[in-house]
Amino acid sequence: MTEIQPIFDGRAFIDGQRVGAREGQTYAKHSPVDGRLLGDVARCGAADIDAAVAAARAAFADGRWARQAPAARKRVLVRLAELLLQHADELALLETLDMGKPIRYARSVDVASAANCVRWYGEAIDKVYDEIAPTPRTALALITREPLGVVGAIVPWNYPLLMACWKVAPALAAGNSVVLKPSEKSPYSALRLAELALQAGLPPGVLNVVPGFGPEAGSALALHMDVDGIAFTGSTRVGKQIHVMAGQSNLKRAWTELGGKSPNLVFADCPDLERAVQAAVGSVMFNQGESCNAPSRLFVEASIKDAFVERALALLPRYQPADPRQPSTVMGAIVDRIQLDTVLRYIEQGQAEGARLLAGGQAVQPVPGGYYVQPTVFDGVRNDMTIAREEIFGPVLSIIPFTDAAEAVRQANDSIYGLQAAVWTRDLNKAHAVARALRAGTVHVNQYDEDDITVPFGGFRQSGIGRDKSLHALDKYTELKTTWIRLDAPDGL
Ligand code: NAD
Fold first, then answer.
1. pLDDT at 3 over 60
2. Which atom of ligand 1 is nearest to the CA of 464?
3. How remote is the CA of residue 318 from the centroid of ligand 1, in Å?
4. Contact of 258 with 459, CB cutoff 8 Å
5. Are 387 and 346 in contact (CB under 8 A)?
6. 350 CB less than 6 Å from ligand 1?
7. If you average pLDDT over residues 171-175, what whole number do you get?
8. Which is the closest atom of ligand 1 to the Cα of 236?
9. What is residue 372's three-state secondary structure?
């Protein structure tokens, strides 16, 4: 029998070194592309988290990073960004094999955006000033920002490297030490990130990566008494537990970026129907529908609904799943069997509750042994159906016709989530009014693609607390300190 050799190094990265889990446990990591074994990954637990937090604490306490001048931290982060780009092919391949996304996007979106994020926070950090308060002349009040100390970061599998960088880059720029726990479904790019950071000049112990399962490594990090802040991206269900664990332990600062069920409102006076259709379909199918901000509830004004549906269906051949290692592929594999089954279950439930399946709905196997599902479109969806209320996290578009703008906005807001939303109309007054009325962290007008590291990303309501990206993210990784200095002016001054 031919043994398949593990390809990738799945050991943890603690205090500048690759190490196995203390108790020696590993788990087998398979690729969703074709089911092949990628390697054995360290199944870390509380003892490994203890070791990583101790390394991070020691690094923070002796100031090997925190006390470096902002311009010195900048140089390291900019070098790391360059290394990420130099290793773009390797990192993109890791992402594709690990979680199934098309290699073209892994390289042009994930790795490119991750490098840009690291560079941006590096470049920003020596341009951020502190404050002096307008107090009476008898005293000086300095308002300064200090790093939290040890930051725990827990991230999901849908954009593994990018979500890691959204946390790690601002946390490091601000002078913190970090313990990062990647998803058990996509550990490899985070481990490479730590190796490249060391190569870029980040001192050992400042960035530690501890792979493992949520209820083992993740909860040990969230409950740890010596972690000062926890930055989490993932599901709303686990996000709520993160806040509980923060409260149960040491009241560490907890920030959560969670799920979404974003509404996309297309009015009959939309300025460009073809663009609206392409954005509606493309944004839901992108990343196999495994995006927190996928506009999965599509509200279309009834008078243009049939024309809209016809054009949407005509686009679907472009999104048929194929081998994500091929550069031409735009729809890759679903992350694993569990997620594929979840998506198929929602599709069944949609039909059982009376939604009309217009296209897709089946698992397919363009690559033997892999997990793939057809792009799926439902019409006649009601906002109270399960497929309109719960995050499916698969390539499933639900079309909800409307006739009354106020009612459409009411339904759009009738969700536990509030991550993103969109409105399509050529009427400026309507665009403003609807954008104001939508309860979401980001509202798109006549597009759904704009994105930039300079703007905050995060949600209202159960889509989470806090914002990633932009200078606002630095708020999560710093404490405000006020220092009062008494001033006794010499006589005559
Ligand atoms: P998940 O909540 O299952 O897991 C996220 C991370 O939490 C993983 O690393 C996991 O191991 C860990 N975890 C699981 N249980 C834990 C526990 N008990 N204690 C501590 N950690 C635990 O989410 P997922 O399936 O990996 O990711 C998909 C979710 O992420 C979706 O809901 C998506 O909307 C959300 N997401 C949100 C954003 C955003 O910016 N708002 C971005 C990307 C993904």
1. no
2. 41
3. 29
4. yes
5. yes
6. no
7. 99
8. 32
9. strand
In angstroms, rounded to a whole number, what is the distance separating the alpha carbons of residues 12 and 96? 21
d(C-alpha 166, C-alpha 158), whole Å: 13
Among 259, 304, 249, 254, residue whose Cα is nearest residue 426: 304
Please give the single-letter amino acid code of residue 193. Answer: L
Locate all alpha helices (DSSP H) within 17-87, ordered by sequence: 46-61, 70-86
- Joined tokens for residue 148: 């939290």
Kindly compute the dihedral angle of the four CA atoms of residues 41, 44, 50, 51, in this order, to the nearest 10 degrees.
Answer: -30
Q: What are phi and psi of 31, to 5 degrees?
A: -90, 135
Answer yes or no: is the C-beta of 160 below 6 A from any ligand 1 atom.
Answer: no
Quick one: which of 288, 64, 79 has its CA closest to 199?
79
**Torsions phi, psi of 177, nearest 5?**
-100, 150
Q: Where are the beta strands (DSSP E) in 319-435?
A: 356-359, 363-364, 372-373, 376-379, 396-402, 420-424
Residue 235 Cβ < 6 Å to ligand 1 = yes
Distance CA 121, CA 198 (A): 17
- Residue 453, SS3 per DSSP: coil
Sheet order of strands, 177-181 included: 17-19, 12-14, 207-209, 177-181, 150-154, 229-233, 253-257, 464-465
DSSP 217: I
Residues in Cβ contact with 242 at an 8 Å cutoff, skipping those fewer than 6 apart: 154, 222, 230, 232, 254, 256
* The predicted structure's pLDDT at residue 489: 83
Reported as a single tens digit per residue, the pLDDT across 245-286 is 999 999 999 999 999 999 999 999 999 999 999 999 999 999
Catalytic residue numbers, as ranges: 257, 292
Distances from the Cα of 62 to the Cα of 110, 201, 206, angstroms: 34, 17, 11
